[in-house]
Amino acid sequence: MHREDRKKDPRPIMRCGCEARIKVHADDASGRWFVEQICDNHNHPMLDARFRGLSRSQRAIKEGDLHQMNSMRKAGLRVSTIFRAFANQSGGFETVRFEIKDIYNAIEKQRRAGVTDAESALKFLGNLRTTDSGMFWRYSLDVDKRLENLFWCDGISRYDYSIFGDVLGFDATYGRNKYKFPLVIFSGVDHHMRTVVFGCAILSNESKASYVWLLRSFLEAMKGKQPKSVITDGDLAMKSAVSTVFLGAHHRLCSWHLLRNATARVGRPGFLRKFRLCLMGDLEVDEFETIWTDSVADHGLEDHPWIVDMYAKKHSWSNAHIWGKFFAGLKTTSRCEALNMQLGKFIHNGYNLREFVEHFQHYLEFMRRRELVADYKSAYGEPIVKTKLEPIEQFVATIYIREVFELFREVLMLASNVRVVSTKRTSACVLFEVAMYCKQRSWAVS
Question: What is the spatial distance between Cα 105 and Cα 58, in angstroms, rounded to a whole number?
């Protein structure tokens, strides 16, 4: 029947009045089937063999295929990759007995079966606790009793934070789940100078209230231990929540975001060079004040709103004012952003909440495997001596992790090229005159 309100074109007519049929009946006494009538008169050409997998009557995902498909999805394979795997097994795409959209339909059918997505995710976290007593999660509901925010971390993440939690970085990203909600990952730096994950959260929005709830849940999971330093991208809601919950932490703004904002808001190359120096240079406070004041005056930016705001926040970004605060070498949220990029290899945009939580835990297992490899490389084998201060270098190699040792050796190599020319003791300090070997230039060190 033709309908005026039809959104899609109707399917082609497949019925042609073909009389081919077979009639059977079952004999109750013997339990056997008998053919009563058969008609092999077709009024149409037979279906080409290469089209059999596309016929609606022949197309189906069998139970064994479904189990195999679910196993491949748990390993993080995309639907297109799964379909190629089936084609490889069966000898070509034309011999696969279903289409790629049938895989999507099967996935959606499994999602709709049983409890809701939120209940399934919480049940999965509960099941993890059977093998991990340190598993922790908290969630909040909105006025309609729907899941609003979810935070979780496992026992290993909580232990890592107890060791490496002095410096905390977190950032929000989008598009990593079916609902496009913000994803927040808490991370830091471990003893191998690698990124370590402390926890993960999915929020319904990026309001101050959501971040305050999240940071309080994070503190609860970490038994009240507050970080000494926090680095974020400068989001106002994040900044306000950090000052509300992490009372004793020093909040640093991401240098990369500040340079990008300076380029967009000011855009003057001369000022940008001076701003980069104020941001990342090893300056004293009085040197910073002189360079900043002169640069702002030279470019007539005294009344620029962004310049005024940045000067008021100088204790959150200037190296001169942050000097002495511990940030484990972090100046940007680039580790957080790199983490989000790596996460894309394990988590696809179409994952629902339960699938996201499961594959995020798979990603953590992958990261921890890399830490195991780093532990092995650090524990076995002795590094080759490169400096003339062999006793010092050999001793340090026995007490430092390999990555930290290599950082120390760079400084040691520079120090081994310096000689002390003269020494002078004053009432306040000792003054050294040092020079490089075979160089005329010297430096005064106090």
Answer: 16
> Could you give the 3-state DSSP secondary structure of residue 423?
strand
Task: Please state, in angstroms and rounded to a whole number, the distance separating the CA atoms of residues 446 and 431.
Answer: 5
DSSP class per residue in 304-372: -HHHHHHHHTGGGT-HHHHTT---TT--SSHHHHHHHHHHTTT--TT--HHHHHHHHHHHHHHHHHHHH
User: Are 295 and 287 spatial neighbours (Cβ–Cβ below 8 Å)?
Assistant: no
446 residues of the chain, pLDDT tens digit each = 556 666 677 777 777 778 888 888 888 888 888 888 888 888 887 777 777 667 776 677 787 888 787 788 777 777 888 888 888 887 777 777 788 888 788 777 766 665 567 888 888 899 999 999 999 999 998 888 888 999 999 999 999 999 999 999 888 876 555 667 888 999 998 888 888 999 999 998 889 999 999 999 999 999 999 999 998 887 888 889 999 999 889 988 888 888 888 888 888 888 889 989 988 888 888 999 999 999 999 888 888 999 999 999 898 888 888 888 888 877 777 777 777 777 777 777 778 888 888 888 988 998 888 888 888 888 887 888 887 788 888 888 888 888 888 888 888 888 777 888 889 888 888 998 888 777 777 888 88
DSSP state of 52: G
